[in-house]
Design brief:
The protein is of the alpha+beta class. It folds into three domains: 3-295, no CATH class; 302-415, no CATH class; 423-480, Arc Repressor Mutant, subunit A. It has helices spanning 53-65, 168-185, 225-244, 290-298, 304-315, 319-325, 329-340, 345-363, 374-385, 391-404, 408-415, 423-436, 438-445, 451-462, 469-480; strands spanning 3-14, 69-70, 77-80, 90-93, 100-109, 112-125, 129-133, 144-148, 155-161, 197-207, 217-222, 252-257, 262-268, 278-279. The strands form three sheets. A nine-stranded mixed β-sheet has the order 2-5-6-9-1-10-11-12-13. Strands 4-3-14 form a three-stranded antiparallel β-sheet, with no helix packed on it. The protein has a two-stranded antiparallel ribbon with strand order 7-8. Helix 5 (304-315) packs across helix 6 (319-325).
Length: 485
């Protein structure tokens, strides 16, 4: 049987505000446990929440960037459930009247441009963090659990997609584009490793060509965009096996294990009525004025898709180069600094998408913390173009320089890796090689032109790989003379 996957993603984004959603507590990541709490975020009797205006602005900015309609009237609800990381035993969240609805996000995949609908983007507060102490970190295997309420109450936006995604690759492309938009807006640092961007996936299978959806399964605990792709690929394969043997897929929540690459059952899936939603009595409705929305719309920066298109048009970059250069405002700033330092646009993009990207990935760093300054890389690019050093050597030196946080040109000088381009020095090496390989030189002069490549290679070897290829080729040809025939 051939099946089609139907995937929808729920992305939770912690906002970069200095204080929490409904109180004045700090939001600093990594603080000592339970040091950033107060009666409001702990839900103590008599405390009253006050909405964070900056967080609501961030939510509307996200909605506008995702082409959402901003509702003229929105209210908060209490989502009731009982878990140790919920100090109030309910979460304040927008439910049936979210602030941002009916948007979309366009992504690129193998088939071209694919539009994914955005059902809603709504505001809520984050929960605390449970630490299950045991070998696996899972509650079932723990000896005891600890709870840190520092994160409880941090402003959180949930962005819910329509079930328009069909493959793990499309899901990864959607998350990559969404992350780039959020970074560009400056509303979150979207660090999945720190939990400021988290993704749950709903996936079901249906027969190819069918309209009705299958039974959906929610997958949790995916801590990177790559993990989302792996989890979805496994879950699609698992559900295919279930259906092929004639069994029914069970609606449930499943846990993704990063080590095994598999999902396992956590619990049966809750329905909305299980949470007993009701309007939050301590908060007034949100009714954003048109002037407020227009001010936010006018302040939107150039978004990643438009930025990539501009970079491609202005500098003739490939789609891959434009994707890396235009991924983040900081990468654009690095690129523009390279151009200002004299690097040609295509060369700058090639080095950024190649060696610089590799070095950043190897060290788990963002481009804003790059150890090689744009001016240093521009000087290295100029050195390659000017024949001071060959390209292969320059690439190796760049990675070494990045590891040491050193200037690439300084390493080249220190190691004596400058390219030999002096005619006299090259001619000396050429005559030495011809003397050592007289038979091959004679074959070339007799008309066997393919031997030239061998002699060229031997000359480069004699020059320890530092000969300027164009100079070596010219001098070797001059010394050998024209072949017969």
């Amino acid at each position: 049987m051939t099946y089609e996957a139907v995937i929808g993603l729920e992305v939770h984004v912690e906002l970069s505000t200095r204080s929490k959603m409904f109180c004045g507590c700090a939001t600093t990541f990594g603080a000592e446990p339970n040091t950033q709490t107060c009666p409001v975020c702990l839900g103590q009797p008599g405390s009253l929440p006050v909405p964070n205006e900056r967080a609501i602005e961030h939510l509307m900015t996200i909605g506008l960037a995702l082409s959402c309609r901003i509702a003229g009237h929105s209210i908060f609800h209490r989502k009731n459930y009982f878990y140790p990381d919920m100090p109030k035993n309910y979460q304040i969240s927008q439910y049936d009247l979210p602030l941002c609805v009916d948007g979309h996000l366009e992504i690129e995949d193998a088939g071209g441009t694919h539009r994914v609908g955005i059902t809603r983007a709504h505001m809520e507060e984050d929960t605390g963090k449970s630490l299950h102490v045991g070998a696996t970190g899972r509650i079932a295997d723990s000896s005891h659990s600890l709870v840190d309420y520092n994160r409880a109450g941090i402003p959180l936006v949930e962005i819910v997609s329509e079930p328009d995604i069909r493959t793990p690759e499309q899901a990864q492309a959607y998350l990559t584009e969404l992350r780039a938009i959020l970074l560009t807006l400056g509303v979150s640092d979207v660090r999945m490793d720190e939990g400021s961007m988290r993704c749950d996936a709903n996936v079901s299978l249906r027969r190819a060509g069918a309209d009705a959806y299958g039974v959906k399964v929610e997958v949790k605990n995916m801590n990177s965009i790559r993990s989302v792709g792996r989890a979805l690929a496994y879950e699609i394969e698992r559900q295919t096996r279930v259906l092929d043997r004639g069994d029914a897929v069970v609606q449930e929540t499943r846990h993704f294990d990063e080590g095994t690459g598999k999902t396992s059952s956590m619990r049966s899936k809750e329905e909305a009525f299980d949470y007993r939603y009701f309007p939050e009595p301590d908060l007034v409705p949100i009714a954003p004025a048109e002037e407020w929305m227009e001010k936010l719309r006018a302040g939107l920066p150039e978004l990643p898709r438009a930025r990539r298109e501009r970079l491609t048009a202005e500098h003739a970059l490939t789609p891959e180069q434009a994707a890396f250069v235009g991924a983040h405002p900081m990468s654009v700033a690095y690129f523009e600094a390279l151009l200002a330092a004299g690097a040609p646009a295509r060369d700058a993009a090639v080095w950024m998408a190649g060696e610089l990207s590799r070095a950043l990935n190897d060290h788990g760093e963002e481009i804003g913390a790059a150890r090689i300054a744009p001016e240093q890389l521009a000087a290295l690019i100029e050195a390659v173009a000017g024949g001071v050093v060959n390209l292969n050597t320059a690439k190796k030196v760049f990675l070494d320089a990045y590891e040491q946080s050193a200037d690439p040109l300084a390493l080249i000088a220190e190691r004596g890796l400058q390219q030999v381009s002096d005619d006299g020095a090259v001619e000396g090496a050429v005559r030495e090689v011809i003397g050592a390989h007289a038979a091959e030189a004679a074959r070339y002069r007799a008309g066997e032109q393919k031997v030239f490549g061998f002699l060229m290679g031997q000359t480069m070897k004699a020059l320890k790989g530092q000969g300027a290829p164009d100079v070596v080729k010219r001098v070797l040809a001059d010394v050998l003379g024209e072949p017969d025939g």
